[in-house]
Amino acid sequence: MLEAALEILSVLGRNRLRTVLTALSVAWGVFMLALLLGAGHGLENGVDWEFRDDAVTSVWVRSGKTSLPFAGRGPGRDVRFTNDDYEAAGREVPAIEYRSGAFYLWGEFQVRHRNQHSAFDVLGVHPGFRHVEKAEMVRGRFLHDVDLEERRKVAVIGTKVRQSLFGDDDPLGKRIEIRGLAFLVVGEYEDVGGEAELRKIYVPITTAQLLYNSPERIHSLVFTLSNNDLEESRLASESIRLLLARRHDVAPEDRRAIRVHNNLEEYKRLTAVFGWIHVFVWIVALGTLLAGVVGVGNIMLVAVAERTKEIGIRKAIGATPRSIVGMIVCEAVLITAVSGYAGLVAGVLLVEAIANAAIELPLFRNPAVDLRITWIATLILIVCGALAGLFPALRAARVDPIVALREGD
Amino acid sequence: MSPSPGAVVRLEAVSKTYRSGKEALAVLKNVDLRVERGEMVAIMGSSGSGKSTLLNILGILDRYDSGAYYLDGRLIRNLGEREAARFRNRFVGFVFQAFNLLAFKTALENVALPLYYRGVGRRARTRDALEYLERVGLSGRAHHRPAELSGGERQRVAVARALVTQPELLLADEPTGALDTQTSYELMDLFEELNAAGLTVLIVTHEHDIAERAHRIVRLRDGRIEHGDPTTTDEGHPPPNGGFPPC
Ligand SMILES: Nc1ncnc2c1ncn2[C@@H]1O[C@H](COP(=O)(O)OP(=O)(O)OP(=O)(O)O)[C@@H](O)[C@H]1O
Ligand SMILES: [Mg+2]
Q: What contacts B49, CB < 8 A, 6 or more positions away?
């Protein structure tokens, strides 16, 4: 094998320019493949990043003004959700896994601990909100049903809140002042949603309602669904919408009065688009590779035609057809594999460099080339090289030494 | 009839016809030929008389249509390509008019190439190739490429390449055709020297003074071996090993 490789190298070395040009075309193809795959991966990561914040299966329902007359009532009426809506949804839509209402304490509040104070968003929520937001507890606990029942003045704070109010101190059991009322900190959470998500304070929704003197009012409803099948998720969010429409005398087709945002639907839509981009990337990349391989095959064919004399001589001194086939195929494999691998390495390095440069683009993040794919690509390259060499090799094996040797030098 | 142990080459009624389209050209017609071990035979004949065809059949580069060819007692007929290649590599060495060296390889690499196809390791290959280059007086030019060598030197590299596998038979098709007289004679000196050491040599040539140096001249005319006056066809040099009478 080594012997054969050395023999081939001596042949390839003879026509350096052609070897280099062939190698370049393959290297370019694979380089593009790596780049496109990296970019495709970056897009996928970008989509996942956009959706990193909340549970993928979450459904957000907000209320608005009616836009259609219904049940004898004119349009332009405000729809307001209540605690009963929250209860009814839980009762009547079995696909719901976790649910929560949200009661916004409008505007950022001056929140104070001793002499530290800063402005944060404060939300009244149910315990299920933790699953919707995918909040990870780092200290203490999230809100409990008991907190809601007893309308306790407890608060769960984001890590950023803790940092600005408590520094590195443990906030548990400490009191913070919200709108002049003292709340006991019972937990601290992390959220991959980023800075803004960590500057929030969650309090029991009942406490928040009491604070604003509207004990029944809920601003929006959020749910997670137990199933991440798109069709079922659509059906579930539709049945939530219709349920709320019925409860509030809203026309079933009035999508302005009750706005449903199905996260999964958005996610699936984007991932479907990127799935197609992915397919497209592969087609383009494989096409480029194929062009490279055809190029190698073509050049090998030319090389074989030019080398009939050499092949004739080799046969006259005892080369078997098999050794001739082996020689040509190995040449093709060597060119394809070595240059392809070089292109791959170059492509991967560039993708890494782009990833490290941390260029901020919407829907594009952490481009990367899967190492497994690089191995598969190398394998494909070897196979392609062999295929590219096979046809010229078979032609070479058929060279008649007598005819070849009779040709002039 | 069992082949005699001394005959390196035995042709019995070998015929060869080239067919191109409707036309058929009988190039060899019932050729009988016997070459004993250690003989040096010249093959002469006008252009197109079939000399090269005969030599190619002897060297297993070409097939024949009928008759029988025994090389060193083995019947050579309808061999597969693979086997033919193996036999070529083992039993025959070729020297061509046009040298047919690989231009991108050095003299040493050219000489070593047949051993590569025999599966000899690199080191042994280089050693043997150097030895044979030395025998043809070219060890000093081992690392030159053919383009850097004179015609005579190239042909001697070709001879070394033909000999490196220690063949039974050296076949030379007009080896002096591209050389000047002086160089031709030097090459013939080399052939004689090798022949004296026991090698069987067949040389196709147009030149009488080259043919004169063989033990025997075989004349081809229209695909047949001429059986003329034995005193003029046989030049009377006895084979060195006392050998066998020509058939
Ligand atoms: N492959 C072939 N197909 C058809 N005819 C051929 C082929 N090879 C040789 N011939 C013909 O066979 C005849 C003998 O050719 P060959 O080469 O043996 O002659 P030669 O005696 O070596 O001649 P020269 O002295 O010119 O080399 C010629 O007429 C040639 O045209
Ligand atoms: Mg000839």
A: B220, B221, B222, B223
Answer yes or no: is A314 within a domain. yes
Any idea which ligand is nearest the CA of B53?
1
Domain boundary residue, one of A168, A197, A213? A213
Whole-model pTM above 0.80? no
Q: Which amino acid is at B94?
A: F
Ligand at shortest distance from the CA of B58 = 1
Number of domains in chain A: 2
Question: Could you confirm whether domain B7-225 is CATH 3.10.20.340?
Answer: no
Round to whole Å and give the CA distance between A157 and A123: 11
For residues A294 and A387, state if they share a domain: yes
Q: How many CB atoms lie within 10 A of CB A112?
A: 16
Q: What whole-number distance in Å separates Cα of residue A388 and Cα of residue A382?
A: 10
Nearest CA to ligand 1 atom 16: B50
- A238 domain residue, yes or no: no
Residue type at A269? R
Query: Two tokens at A6?
Result: 């050395």
Which chain A residues are within 8 Å of B161, Cβ to Cβ? 317
Identify the domain boundary among A195, A213, A231.
A213
CB contact under 8 A, B62 and A315: no
Check CB contact under 8 Å for A315 and B85. Answer: yes
| ipTM tops the 0.95 cut | no
Q: B82 is written with which tokens?
A: 């693979």
Query: Which domain covers residue A141, as residue numbers?
Result: 106-213
Measured between CA atoms, how close is B81 to chain A, in angstroms? 7
Tell me which H or E stretch contains B224.
strand B224-225
Residue nearest to atom 13 of ligand 1 (CA): B48
pLDDT tens digit sequence for A335-374: 888 888 888 888 888 888 887 776 666 666 667 777 777 7
| Displacement of CA A389 from its chain's centroid (Å) | 39
Whether residue A309 lies inside any domain: the answer is yes
Smallest Cβ–Cβ distance between A310 and the set B96, B102, B161 belongs to B102
Mark whether A276 and A205 lie in a shared domain.
Answer: no
The string over B33-44, giving b where at least 16 C-beta atoms fall within 10 Å of a residue's C-beta and e elsewhere, is bbbbbbbbbbbb
pLDDT in tens, chain B (247 residues): 444 457 899 999 999 999 888 889 999 999 999 999 999 999 999 999 999 999 999 999 999 999 999 998 899 998 999 999 999 999 999 999 999 999 889 999 999 999 999 999 999 999 999 999 999 999 999 999 999 999 999 999 999 999 999 998 999 999 998 899 999 999 999 999 999 999 999 999 999 999 999 999 999 998 899 875 444 444 444 445 444 444 4
CB B49 near ligand 1, within 6 Å: yes
B81 closest CB neighbour out of A3, A313, A321: A321
**A317: three-class secondary structure by DSSP:** coil
Which of B102, B111, B149, B204 to mutate: most A Cβ within 10 Å?
B102
> A209 and A273 share a domain?
no
Instruction: Tell me which residues of chain A have a C-beta less than 8 Å from any C-beta of chain B.
Output: 3, 6-7, 10-11, 13-14, 309-310, 312-323, 401-402, 405, 408-409
Q: Which tens digit of pLDDT belongs to each residue from B101-121?
A: 998 899 999 999 999 999 999
Which sequence spans correspond to the domains of chain B? 7-225
